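Holo model, heme C. Inputs:
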Amino acid sequence: MKTTILLCLVAVCLLARAAEKSFTLPPETATLKSGPGAELVTSQCLLCHSADYISTQPRLTRAAWKAEVIKMQQKYGAPIMTNNIDALTDYLARNYGRDAQTNTPKAKQDISKPLWLFR
Ligand code: HEC
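Output:
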C-alpha cells in the first residue's frame, strides 16, 4: 500500500515537472510623456502597473489626479512619500489632465442636440 502511494506521489511530481513551461513576455512598450516629473512618476507609479494605466485614463482634472495618487498611496499601498504627492500630481495634470495639449484638437460637438442631427 505504502509503495503504491509513494509511486503515485512520484508520478504526480513527474507530471508537475513535465507541465512546467517557460515563456517570454512581450517587451514593455508603453512609456510616459517626457518632461519635468516624468522620472518621479516612472519610479513611483510603474512599480505595479504599466504606463497605459495612466495614459489611457480620460483627461482628469488636477483634483481627480491628486485623488488618484492618494488612492494609490493609501488604498493600494504605493510607497509614495507624502511630500511627493504635489509633484506627481503636477506632472499628471500637465501631461494627462483636462487642460493638457492634445495632438489633434477635435472640433467641439454641441451635446445639447441629439447625435442624429449631425449625420
Ligand atoms: C503598490 C502598487 C501600485 C503603485 C505603486 C501604483 N499603483 Fe496605480 N493601481 C494599483 C492597483 C492595484 C490598481 C487597480 C488595478 C486594477 O483594477 O486592475 C491601480 C490602478 C490605477 C489606475 C486605474 C484607475 C483606478 O483607480 O483603478 C490609475 C490611473 C493608476 N493606478 C495610477 C497610478 C499612479 C498615477 C501611480 C503613481 C502615483 C500609481 N498608480 C502607483 C497599484 C499601484
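Residues 44-45, 47-49, 53-54, 57, 68-69, 71-72, 76-78, 80, 88, 92 surround heme C (CB under 6 Å). The mean pLDDT is 83.
Archived with the compound record.
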